[in-house]
């Protein structure tokens, strides 16, 4: 057992911010939160002067699958534009140093998705930054079906003189795929569980069924007017969607708010593509949040280093965002978008003890750094 004493606890739950309070961890879970807690035999960690935060959740990442040290790319299967059957989980190296860097900056959980070279790319999973095995670190699998619009799939298949060479082609691939999923769904329903009448099993279409049945969202790499194309397709087939990257969202406040889509914004500081991704409007998260859109901030790691998740949050605060609302975009909002809010994203009794201690207010104090990170109650980083 571990008892964190005398800290300022930012619960991101109904309890709000608790000054000079304690948090008790037992068997990897949060057992109690309050003032004046004591527990016989518990190790004491004095957090006086520190901010006790839920572990940060990165809702869009490729760490462990894209490795800048080895140049590995194990998350892009660029053999055809639809690879819905692929599972990012199999492309992750759990020993990648990228996870150490994530722990260092307080990111305890990441949604790791296939790359964006294909139109329908495969399923994403939610992985903790440390643990005894990849299996033990897996929080949600699958968490979403990854897809991509615009220059990425165009840039892969255009030079091959193959579809999609254009936005026309990208949209048609989406339409064709989901019509195929609908047809597969109808055949399965008509078979009434009779094995002899069932259509041949197809993992790619099964993953699409999860989207149509609203068990997972379609997680879409998109910018500017591509977001509107995706919202039309999502409305046509009636599925949930997350707009990932979402640069240029400020042009479409009404449409995004009315759609019910979530927005996973970023990253700032990445190279811009000609004709898209060139409207930098992270301040749009303030208005989207005000309109009830569930918003999160990403790193797109390893495109950006983990600490940039706080830098980006600081930009929203600098633009006038309320710090508490912005902190939600790093914790409980991404956890909710990923369907993992019952385990991570806030400090509440019964939840996983994924915790980061800061020496200042993150995204407000530019000098604030993580001094300790815990995952499942185990200390995985300590600032030296």
What does this protein structure show overall?
With 384 residues, this protein is of the alpha/beta class. It has helices spanning 97-104, 134-137, 151-157, 167-191, 203-212, 226-237, 253-259, 284-290, 308-318, 323-328, 332-337, and strands spanning 2-10, 17-26, 29-34, 43-46, 51-54, 56-61, 66-67, 72-73, 107-112, 120-128, 138-148, 218-222, 241-245, 262-265, 295-297, 355-358, 370-375, 378-382. Helix 7 (253-259) links the parallel strand 13 and strand 14. Helix 4 crosses helix 5 and helix 4 (167-191) runs parallel beside helix 6 (226-237). The longest helix is centred in the middle third of the chain and has 25 residues, at 167-191. It starts with a strand and ends with a strand.
What's the number of domains?
A: 1
The Rg value, from CA coordinates, equals 21 Å
CATH topology descriptor = TIM Barrel
**Given the C-alpha coordinates, what overall shape results?**
globular
Question: Tags for this entry?
Answer:
18 strands; alpha/beta; 8-stranded mixed sheet; 384 residues; 27% helix; TIM Barrel
Quick take:
The protein is α/β, with parallel strands linked by helices and 384 residues long.
Would you spell out the secondary-structure blueprint of this structure?
Blueprint: E1 2-10, E2 17-26, E3 29-34, E4 43-46, E5 51-54, E6 56-61, E7 66-67, E8 72-73, H1 97-104, E9 107-112, E10 120-128, H2 134-137, E11 138-148, H3 151-157, H4 167-191, H5 203-212, E12 218-222, H6 226-237, E13 241-245, H7 253-259, E14 262-265, H8 284-290, E15 295-297, H9 308-318, H10 323-328, H11 332-337, E16 355-358, E17 370-375, E18 378-382
Parallel strand pairs: 1-4, 1-5, 6-9, 11-12, 12-13, 13-14, 14-15
Antiparallel strand pairs: 1-2, 2-3, 5-16, 7-8, 9-10, 10-11, 16-17, 17-18
